[in-house]
Amino acid sequence: MSKNPYLGLYLIMAVLLVLPFVLPNSFYVDLAIRMAINAVIVLGLNLLIGFAGQISLGHAGFLGIGAYATAILSTHFGWHPLLAMAAGAAAAGLLAAMVARPIFKLKGHYLAMATLGLGIIIHIVVRTEAQWTGGPDGMPVPPMSLAGFEISGDKHWYWIVAVLLSVSVWASLNLINSPFGRALRALHGSEVASKVVGVDVVRYKVAIFVLSAVFASIMGSVMAHYVGFVTPNLADFFHSIELVTMVVIGGMASVYGSVLGAVLLTALPQALTSFEGWETVAFGGILMLSMIFMPKGLVPTLSSKFGRGD
């Protein structure tokens, strides 16, 4: 590790402070907001995949739970958006806790298929329960308000997600350098050895799965209120794969890799629009080349090359 693991955090905060003053128009501000939202989600997912070594191919389902919980509770029942967001996070955490023990008895591709199935079930529910969710067409989401002040406009939302990203990076760095984080890395290395030294493997797996689900749910709620509309695509399989790809490209078991992967893969589709119909091919080619030449991800590869840590 580098001597000061928070140097990257200071750099991120400095960039976030300067960015809204140099971006040329609202399109780029919107893109920056989406980057920050994805970065927080990927931070939670990387704690699960990169540090604990547990795959999840249905993580967008938890994103959908948060988005639809805040949409349904605030629209149909008149709940305050913050209370609806908290309820969504609690529901995602509870579901994750309920399914984690049976799911994490599985290994390898069996575990991947189980998490994939969970995500597909959530996606089917939000598509079919049209009386509550609007079905395939989605549903509008009321604006967020705090102390009587309605949050609207890109600039308001930019500062909110900038704070959320900074706090999430800080919390992740502290978590992985705590005894909890060392236990996660231990069970990633060898579950048998972890058990021998007294690590409660099942408890740690459940805890990190719940934590990553809550990360996703909260940011799903934020995305719903920011966009003002939510559709089932938010919880589909392809979105889950996109999130996992951000983890892998940025670098597994790398906090700053999570941020970099989210930033690059959120911006890349926009940068490839000039290919006019070949965007997907170009996108796949870039990902393939990245994994061939940088299999550990961008940040770990560059860190090892220049002799520094995360």
Strand content: under 5%
Q: Report the major sheet.
A: 2 strands, antiparallel
Order of helices and strands: HHHHHHEEEHHHHEHHHH
Structural class: mainly alpha
N→C terminal distance:
6 Å
Give the low-confidence spans: none
Oligomer kind = single chain
Q: Number of helical segments? A: 14
Average pLDDT reading: 91
The dominant shape is: globular
Number of strands: 4
Spatial order of the strands forming the largest sheet: 1-4
Roughly what percent helix?
Answer: over 70%
* Gyration radius from CA atoms, angstroms: 19 Å
Protein name: Branched-chain amino acid ABC transporter permease
InterPro entries: ABC_transp_permease, LivM-like
Pfam families: BPD_transp_2
Subcellular location: Cell membrane
Give a description of the structure.
- By secondary structure, the protein is an all-alpha fold.
- It has a domain at about 25-235.
- It is about 75% helix and about 5% strand.
- It contains 14 helices and 4 strands.
- The strands form 2 sheets. A two-stranded antiparallel sheet has the order 1-4.
In terms of topology, how is this protein built?
Blueprint: H1 7-22, H2 26-51, H3 60-76, H4 81-103, H5 108-128, H6 130-133, E1 139-140, E2 145-146, E3 149-150, H7 154-176, H8 179-189, H9 191-196, H10 201-227, E4 229-230, H11 237-250, H12 255-271, H13 279-293, H14 298-305
Antiparallel strand pairs: 1-4, 2-3
